[in-house]
Specification:
Elements: H1 3-9, E1 13-16, E2 18-26, E3 42-48, E4 50-51, E5 54-55, E6 57-58, H2 68-74, E7 89-96, E8 102-104, H3 108-114, E9 123-129, E10 135-140, H4 145-153, H5 157-160, E11 161-165, E12 170-174, E13 180-181, E14 186-193, E15 199-202, H6 217-223, E16 235-237, E17 247-251, E18 256-262, E19 266-270, E20 275-286, E21 289-292, E22 296-299, E23 304-318
The structure holds zinc ion.
Length: 320
């Protein structure tokens, strides 16, 4: 391989986000973050995505203009030849101005069979900001499948829904089968399997364009885990983690997630098939290249030594 090629492969892949307008969306992606948003109902920034519903384009360098899905197909060497027919992860920033619907995702097995070969969705949230005394919906209070079905079909929502307190910097794992909802006033960074399959259990009887959004009650009842996991098994605080190192927040079948707060220069080896990075606060330099709040990029396989300096907070992820 020529030197030029080597050099090209070591480029950071900066990505252009794709924005989604939602009935529950707001304008903070254009205020708290430096994005040009399409409207005051912008709910999601698909920051690192190769999903057909929002396929990010490379911003600069030798792959400028290419979609992440195309790179995955044409240049498996950039991603450590990971064995998957599609880019496995999806990173989003969510601005919930209003409550999101109460929802649940299927696992791979159920989605493959019932959703045209789609992946299921394991996801996790890092809380970027929320109001004082904020909560999220994680889990439910039904003890048996019969209980669950009765509560849902009879609309006993206050009895059914389990809310947990959250604060900035909390990290929450949402396994497939977990009832969940992000509540208004909360911004999160979500890392998930590359999937867009959501079963809506309850939408507060809201109307979108004059009509209620579709519910998926039967599929929800199929996939919801009963009883729910204990809330303390899925939530942890990241405050107090040491600065200037990669702090592993979660390792599961589909992904590894790290939090990195840089306050003095750090150096480590990019030893993963690829490493996704989202800059959530501050600015700095990565191997001499400027990085700042709102940037999302991938360090490809073989990137080598990574040096970061400045004052930045980063959530990083890779496959397991
Ligand atoms: Zn979800």
């Amino acid at each position: 391989m020529s030197l030029t090629n080597n050099k090209e492969e070591k480029n950071m892949l900066f990505l252009e986000p794709v924005f989604k307008q939602m009935i529950w969306g707001g304008n903070r992606l254009g205020i708290d973050f430096p994005y040009q948003i399409p409207g005051d109902d912008t709910g999601e920034c698909w920051a690192v995505s190769a999903h057909p519903n929002g396929d990010c384009m490379v911003k600069e360098g030798s792959f400028a203009g290419e979609k992440l899905s195309e790179l995955w197909e044409k240049h498996p060497e950039l991603f450590g030849h990971v064995d998957s027919d599609r880019f496995p992860l999806l990173t989003k920033i969510i601005d919930a101005k209003a409550d999101l619907s109460i929802q649940v995702h299927p696992n791979d097995e159920y989605a493959m069979k019932n959703e045209n070969g789609s992946f299921g969705k394991m996801e996790c949230w890092y809380i970027l900001s929320c109001e004082e005394n904020a909560t999220l919906v994680v889990g439910h209070n039904a003890k048996t499948k019969e209980d669950l079905e009765a509560m849902i079909r009879e609309g006993r929502w206050t009895e059914f829904i389990r809310e947990i307190p959250i604060k900035k910097g909390d990290f929450i794992q949402i396994d497939p089968g977990t009832v969940h909802a992000i509540k208004g006033g909360t911004m999160i960074l979500e890392t998930q399997q590359n999937s867009d399959i959501t079963y809506r259990v309850y939408d507060y009887d809201r109307l979108a364009d004059g009509k209620p959004r579709e519910l998926h009650v039967d599929k929800s009842v199929d996939v919801i885990t009963v009883p729910a996991l204990d809330a303390s098994d899925s939530v942890c605080s990241t405050l107090g983690l040491p600065n200037n190192k990669m702090n592993l927040l979660k390792e599961c079948e589909y992904y590894r997630i790290w939090k990195i707060c840089v306050t003095e220069a750090i150096t480590f080896e990019q030893e993963y098939p690829f490493l996704i990075m989202s800059v959530l606060e501050g600015e700095g330099l990565l191997n001499g290249k400027k990085i700042k709040k709102g940037d999302h990029f991938i360090l490809p396989s073989g990137f080598g030594e990574v040096s970061i300096e400045g004052n930045v907070e980063i959530i990083a992820s890779s496959v397991r």
